[in-house]
Design goal:
This protein is an alpha/beta fold. The protein is 40% helix and 20% strand. The structure holds adenosine monophosphate.
């Protein structure tokens, strides 16, 4: 595996790869890699000649300073993990290197995607995500880019980014990887104690309960159930909503003609977790 930190070195390498007519896949991450990231990287390896994994904790996408300062950083372990996965290139730039790439100069039409849920709860978050992903796309010109369904709203926004600005890049969505108890793998799980990790399983449990009862419960009943269940476990509910995926709009009732997702964000002590489930 080649580790590249400088933008110019990466550009030279990409030029070489393109001259050889090789396909490029990219997996953007913030590091502290786990088996959720592995699944994206393995798929990228299968579908492309060259796999680039970026590890960059992007300050601009944190709306909470402590969250940024406490975000787990485990570059040495990440390097070992990526070597085991036979990753071709690790791009791990400094802030200074990232600042050398011109800021993208466009505005996406995102409608509800930039209004609700994470957009509403984390002001500026998606602007930061779009900025860094666009910069990475700009300098790597990948054929395919891999994103996880765990961050569903982000995935849908990146799909719009490609539809509107990077038409040659195919976005590949990858299923959420969970631990044996159902908790979605997340770098932030490292902040949880053993006891909190067990309590956190109830996030997936309530999503499944809502799915099981989707045709019998009203949306209000589902919301009341989730709020009460998590409240009893001292899990702070940031939001629970059922959205219709095409319009990314809230729904008050579920009918069988549309695709719905249950979307949830919670805080356990100081750790914020998100998850979702297709109903
Ligand atoms: P992050 O390092 O958290 O920014 O995540 C990098 C990429 O990995 C994003 O596209 C995430 O959606 C994806 N990802 C993170 N956790 C999981 C998971 N448990 N299952 C699948 N993909 C994930």
């Amino acid at each position: 595996m080649k580790q590249i930190n400088a933008v110019n070195d990466l550009l030279s390498f990409i030029q070489l790869i393109k001259q050889q007519n090789k396909t490029i896949g990219i997996v953007p991450t913030m590091g502290s890699l786990h088996s959720g990231h592995d699944s994206l990287i393995k798929r990228c390896k299968k579908e492309n000649n060259i796999t680039i994994v970026s590890v960059y904790v992007n300050p601009n996408q944190f709306n909470n300073k402590n969250d940024f300062l406490n975000y787990p950083r485990t570059l040495d372990a990440d390097i070992n993990r990526l070597k085991t996965l036979n990753c071709d290139i690790l791009f791990s730039p400094s802030d200074k290197e990232i600042s050398k790439i011109l800021n993208p100069n466009f505005k996406l039409k995102l409608g509800n995607l930039n209004k609700y849920l994470e957009a509403d709860n984390r002001p500026g978050h998606f602007e930061g995500v779009i900025n860094i992903v666009a910069k990475l796309f700009e300098i790597t010109s990948p054929n395919k880019a891999y994103f996880g369904e765990k961050d569903l709203q982000q995935l849908l926004i990146i799909k719009q980014l490609c539809l509107q600005k990077f038409k040659n890049i195919q976005v590949i969505s990858c299923a959420t990887v969970r631990n044996a108890g159902g908790l979605a793998k997340s770098s932030r799980n490292k902040h949880l104690t053993e006891k909190e990790l067990i309590i956190a399983r109830s996030i997936y449990k309530v999503l499944n309960e809502v799915k099981k009862n989707k045709l019998d419960w009203s949306v209000k009943k589902a919301k009341d159930y989730v709020r009460k269940y998590l409240n009893n476990l001292s899990i702070n509910l940031d939001y629970f909503e059922i959205i219709e995926i095409e319009k990314f709009s809230f729904t008050q009732e579920i009918n069988t003609n549309c695709n719905y997702y249950a979307m949830i964000a919670v805080t356990i002590r100081e750790t914020r977790l998100i998850d979702n489930l297709k109903l």
